[in-house]
Specification:
about 250 residues; alpha/beta; TIM Barrel; eight-stranded parallel beta barrel; 8 strands; globular; binds SN-glycerol-1-phosphate
Length: about 250
């Protein structure tokens, strides 16, 4: 089953999903840490592993293959740049940074890698990526040289425009390690205007924040930083989803 079909199916049933974001750069140099994180993911009701980082990565294929040998859930590329595109993952989030005025990240880098993607046959999911003010300057902000959005109407309208332009998913991003995650008000207002799935991430480090994001309307919540430091927490965070999905 295609990754987008899984997401659409679960979204239609209001089944919440959890994605763990793994940055190859931070995991590649310690086999013990890599194995431990994978072990915790395998023990938990995690739906997807997203793979991505903020910089050049020549060994993305190798990293995805190592994950594939251990994990039995879909591995989805969430590339920080075109060096992080490879054919061994299950799907690629092909993102356009809709919140910023950097043309290369709206339609530019995509052209450079389009043929490679097409020929690889990887499932490609067009995604509107919206950077939101998370209380501190994020790597995405620095690397993309764009400003995050903070005005609610602008965020909502950017999400609607993303859907109208044919994106299959919208991602509200507060930035990795954000001080404040995307607010419940923004999540619910955006969700109420969309008929496509909504991903939310950035700065989530408590079960309460995770639950609020889901209850406000996020279909998938992405956690990276916190699980990098506290992989042992993955099972108990995933348990929050289990309770929500089963109306406990
Ligand atoms: C970053 O939204 C993701 O792109 C996850 O953010 O690392 O802060 O969990 P964190």
């Amino acid at each position: 089953m295609h990754v987008l079909d899984i997401i659409l199916d679960k979204t239609s049933k209001n089944q919440k999903m959890l994605a763990v974001l793994l940055d190859p750069e931070k995991l590649s140099d310690s086999i013990e840490k890599f194995d431990m994180v994978c072990e915790y993911i395998n023990q938990s009701a995690v739906d997807f592993v997203f793979v991505g980082g903020s910089g050049y990565n020549a060994n993305i294929n190798e990293f995805v293959c190592r994950l594939r040998n251990i994990l039995n859930i879909p591995i989805v590329l969430f590339p920080g740049d075109i060096s992080q595109v490879c054919s061994t993952a299950d799907a690629l989030l092909f993102l356009s940074l809709m919140s910023g005025k950097n043309i290369d990240l709206i339609i530019g880098e995509h052209i450079k890698v389009a043929k490679k993607i097409k020929e690889s046959g990887i499932e490609t999911i067009p995604m509107g990526y919206i950077l939101i003010d998370g209380g501190r300057q994020s790597t995405t902000q620095k690397v993309s040289k764009t400003e995050p959005l903070s005005d609610a109407d602008e965020i909502i309208n950017t999400a609607i425009a993303s859907e109208l332009l044919g994106k299959k998913i919208v991602y509200l991003e507060a930035g990795s390690g954000a001080k404040t995650p995307v607010s419940s008000t923004i999540i619910s207002s955006v969700k109420s205007q969309l008929s496509i799935p909504l991903i939310v991430g950035g700065g989530i480090r408590t079960k309460n924040q995770l639950q609020i994001a889901w209850q406000s309307g996020a279909d998938i919540v992405v956690i990276g930083n916190f699980f990098e430091q506290h992989a042992d927490q993955i099972p108990s965070f995933a348990q929050v989803k289990y309770k929500l999905n089963n109306h406990e």
